[in-house]
Amino acid sequence: MSQRDKIQPHTIIALVEDRPGVLNRIVSKWRQRGFNIESLAVGHSETAGLSRMTFVVDANTDAEQVVKQVDKLVDVVNIRDISAEEIVSRE
């Protein structure tokens, strides 16, 4: 079994302030830990002034630690790992 076979993708959703630099600060947390972002979608949320970011990252159990670190960022309103939930995934 290769190293890639052991790593499970995690789907992370973050609700953030719609300000310049927020995406960079969040992505930097993943980069610092050496995670690869497989997919990224960003768009306005249903609330004015907030954006929703959806990340799919190659991660192991350390993903929870990065989610906790990102949650501490000032511009992050809410973040959660929805990998265990039943979801419909589309590209």
UniProtKB/TrEMBL annotation:
Residues 11-84 form the ACT domain. Pathway: Amino-acid biosynthesis; L-valine biosynthesis; L-valine from pyruvate: step 1/4; Amino-acid biosynthesis; L-isoleucine biosynthesis; L-isoleucine from 2-oxobutanoate: step 1/4. GO terms for molecular function: acetolactate synthase activity; acetolactate synthase regulator activity. One of its GO terms (cellular component) is cytosol. PROSITE patterns: ACT. Keywords: Amino-acid biosynthesis, Branched-chain amino acid biosynthesis. Pfam families: ACT_AHAS_ss (PF22629). The keyword Plastid does not apply. One of its GO terms (biological process) is L-valine biosynthetic process. PANTHER family: ACETOLACTATE SYNTHASE SMALL SUBUNIT, ACETOLACTATE SYNTHASE SMALL SUBUNIT 1, CHLOROPLASTIC. Belongs to the acetolactate synthase small subunit family. This is ACT domain-containing protein. It comes from marine sediment metagenome. The lineage of its organism: unclassified sequences, metagenomes, ecological metagenomes.
